[in-house]
Design goal:
Blueprint (H helix, E strand, L loop, with lengths): L11 H8 L5 H45 L9 H5 L2 E7 L4 E3 L9 H5 L5 E3 L9 E3 L1 E8 L5 E11 L4 E9 L5 E8 L13 H5 L16 E3 L8 E3 L5 H15 L5 H8 L4
Parallel strand pairs: 9-10
Antiparallel strand pairs: 1-2, 1-5, 3-4, 5-6, 6-7, 7-8
C-alpha cells in the first residue's frame, strides 16, 4: 500500500494570499488597498495631533499682524506679552455698539460670515464677499494713561484672484489712518501682491477716511487726488487696486464700521 502524499496546499485565506504570486491582480489590489488605508490613518493622526499647533501658529500670526499695523511690533518681542495691551471687543455692525453676547477671545469672524444666523446675504456687494457678518471683532489699544490710542478693524474683500484679509488701524478719532496691512491673499506676485510692499503700505499713514463734512473720501486710484484722502493705485495691478478701494470703502462705510466709528467719535462707547 503506497503512502499518501502530504497535502501541501495552503490552508485558510491568509495562507492562500501569501502563497499567491506577487504579480497576481488580486494580491496587488489588496496590498494597494491596505497601504492606502495605513497611509490615510497616518495622515489623519498627524492632522489631529498637529491641529493645536497649527491653530496656535495661526493665532500668533494674527497677533503679529495686529501689532505691526498698530506700529507696536519689534523683532524679538514677546508676541503674547505685547498683544496683551490690546482689548478685543465684539461690535454689532448695524447699531455700532459693543455686545457681550459672544466671547471676544474666541469669536471666529470668518465662521460667523458663513453662518446664516450670524450673517446676511448682500445684494449690494462692492467688496465681493457674498455674505457679511453681523458682528466683528475690533481691537482697542490704550495709551499709558488708559485713554484710547488706536482702534484696529478687520477688513476683507475680493481683489483679482483672491479674497484679501487684513486690518486697518485708526487713530482715536476714528478718522485718521495709522496703517493698513493684509495678512492673507493670493494676488499676483510682483503686481497685486505689492499690497505687501512697505512703501505702498506707508502711503496710508496720515490719510483721512472722511472730509470735514463727514463724507467718506478715502480712495485708491491712479493719478492724483486730494492729498488727505488719495492712495496711489498699484502699478500694473488695476483690478487688485480697485478691489482694495472697494473693500476699504465698504468696511469704512455705512454697511461696515461707520456706525461704530460715529459712536466712537461721539464718546458713546
Amino acid at each position: 500500500m503506497s503512502e499518501q502524499e502530504p497535502n501541501t496546499e495552503p490552508k485558510g485565506a491568509l495562507g492562500r494570499f501569501l502563497a499567491a504570486s506577487p504579480d497576481s491582480p488580486g494580491k496587488t489590489i489588496i496590498v494597494a488597498v491596505v497601504l492606502c488605508l495605513f497611509c490615510s490613518m497616518v495622515v489623519a493622526t498627524a492632522a489631529v495631533n498637529l491641529r493645536p499647533i497649527q491653530e496656535a501658529n495661526k493665532l500668533k500670526d494674527k497677533q503679529v499682524n495686529i501689532l505691526q499695523v498698530a506700529g507696536k511690533y519689534e523683532p524679538g518681542v514677546d508676541i503674547a506679552e505685547a498683544f496683551a495691551a490690546f482689548e478685543p471687543r465684539i461690535v454689532e455692525l448695524e447699531s455700532g455698539t459693543f455686545t457681550d453676547e459672544f466671547d471676544a477671545a474666541s469669536f471666529d469672524d470668518r465662521a460667523a460670515a458663513s453662518d446664516p444666523a450670524l450673517s446676511i446675504s448682500l445684494s449690494d456687494d462692492p467688496a465681493g464677499i457674498g455674505r457679511q457678518t453681523k458682528y466683528a471683532t475690533v481691537y482697542l489699544l490704550n495709551d499709558d494713561a488708559g485713554n484710547l490710542d488706536k482702534v484696529i478693524l478687520p477688513i476683507y474683500g475680493y481683489g483679482l484672484w483672491s479674497t484679501l484679509y487684513g486690518f486697518i488701524a485708526l487713530e482715536e478719532n476714528g478718522n485718521d489712518i495709522f496703517g493698513l496691512q493684509f495678512y492673507e491673499h493670493a494676488e499676483t506676485p510682483g503686481l497685486g501682491a505689492e499690497v505687501d510692499n512697505p512703501r505702498w503700505k506707508a502711503m496710508w499713514n496720515g490719510k483721512k477716511l472722511r472730509d470735514e463734512s463727514g463724507e467718506l473720501q478715502i480712495t485708491v486710484a491712479k493719478g492724483t487726488g486730494h492729498e488727505d484722502h488719495h492712495i496711489d493705485a498699484l502699478a500694473g495691478a488695476t483690478l487688485t487696486s480697485v478691489g482694495v478701494d472697494n473693500l476699504v470703502r465698504f468696511w469704512m462705510g455705512e454697511a461696515g464700521f461707520a456706525p461704530f466709528l460715529e459712536s466712537l467719535k461721539e464718546g458713546e462707547l
